[in-house]
Amino acid sequence: MAGKNTNIPKLLIICGPTASGKSELALKLSHELDAEIVNADSMQVYRGLDIGTAKPSREQLAEVPHHLVDVVEPDGTFSAADFAMAADAAIREISSRGKRAIVVGGTGLYIRALLKGLVDSPAGSAEMRAALQNEADRSGNAAMLEKLRLVDPELAAGLHPNNLVRIIRALEVHQLTGVPLSRQQQEHAFSTQRYHSLQIGISVERAELYERIERRVELMFAGGLLDEVRGLLSAGFGRELKALRSIGYKEAVAHILGEIPLEEAVRLIKRDTRHYAKRQLTWFKADPNILWFEYPEKFDTILQHVIEFHERREA
After folding, report:
1. Which of 12, 78, 258, 280 is deepest in the core (most CB within 10 A)?
2. What kind of architecture, by CATH, is found in domain 10-117+192-311?
3. What are the φ and ψ backbone dihedral angles of 259, each rounded to 5 degrees?
4. pLDDT truncated to tens, each residue of the chain (315 aa)?
């Protein structure tokens, strides 16, 4: 068994909730490590969605090479599987030039897909899914989550009733296989190690994080978010697109179309971004492999951990 995993590449991950300072930390570390950045934010992959996604500035993008930023049009699709494949290719290309890669982002599913791959779940049944959707329409999301809790309590514990797509998929998998999806995920994770990873999470006191979110939203509007959204709509991109249904964009569209006043759009974006940050924290806190540090206060400690990680020889 000794030496079995010595050829598995090393990878640094910077994760945490929105507005926690991930991009700034990654830029700082990239200079220390002679590294390049691989984006793991599911919205920053879209071209033209800059202000509302808090995409790195042109100066930052020029300062350090960034990968998987602006790789798909607003009406395109980009799944976790697409991300894992593209990120693998980018990391290999970066390594081939003698550089290190830092994966940075708050999309937990992207990071999980990269580190562990995606569960090879059975092909779906459109008929079964439609039946479950009809049941949800009749009985409500909470009842469907309770139904899932009876067969897969571990997975259900981490889901919100509004996440009906995942609830239905988990029920579908259980009905097709008789095995809880959470167990399939655990077995898959145990059998697959794609990278030796060091995952650094940025810890921010909740009140401070919410203040940062509020400031960021105000800066987005001051920086031209409404003009950005008007440009997307004028280019023919409709509000039904996934990209324009994301936080910040759907509220801006509603305001531009005269459905809500500006003050309400700002309030909703702040509220929904806070809720999103809480969901991100719930996801990341469930991973015992993430080391949490305050930043910038603990930058020197973070850097020391990163240097030791890259110097360490894996068994």
Report:
1. 12
2. 3-Layer(aba) Sandwich (3.40)
3. -90, -30
4. 334 445 788 999 999 999 999 999 999 999 999 999 999 999 999 999 999 999 999 999 999 999 999 999 999 999 998 999 999 999 999 999 999 999 999 999 999 999 988 765 566 677 888 899 999 999 999 999 999 999 999 889 888 888 888 899 889 888 888 888 877 766 655 456 789 999 999 999 999 999 999 999 999 999 999 999 999 999 999 999 999 999 999 999 999 999 999 999 999 999 999 999 999 999 999 999 999 999 999 999 999 999 999 998 775
**Region(s) of the chain under CATH 1.10.20.140:** 126-189
Q: Does domain 126-189 have CATH number 1.10.20.140?
A: yes
Token readout for 198 is 């060091």
What pTM, to 2 d.p., does this model score?
Answer: 0.79
Q: Which residue has the tokens 């490590």?
A: 33
* Structure tokens that stand for 169 in this block: 């998929």
As a whole number of angstroms, the distance between CA 193 and CA 47 comes to: 32
Tokens at 230, concatenated: 């008007």
How far, in Å, CA of 101 to CA of 91, rounded?
6
Cα–Cα distance, 73 to 303 (Å, whole number): 36
For the chain, where do the domains classified as CATH 3.40.50.300 start and end? 10-117+192-311
State how far the Cα of 302 lies from the Cα of 186, in Å rounded to an integer.
Answer: 29
- CA 6/CA 152 separation, integer angstroms: 36
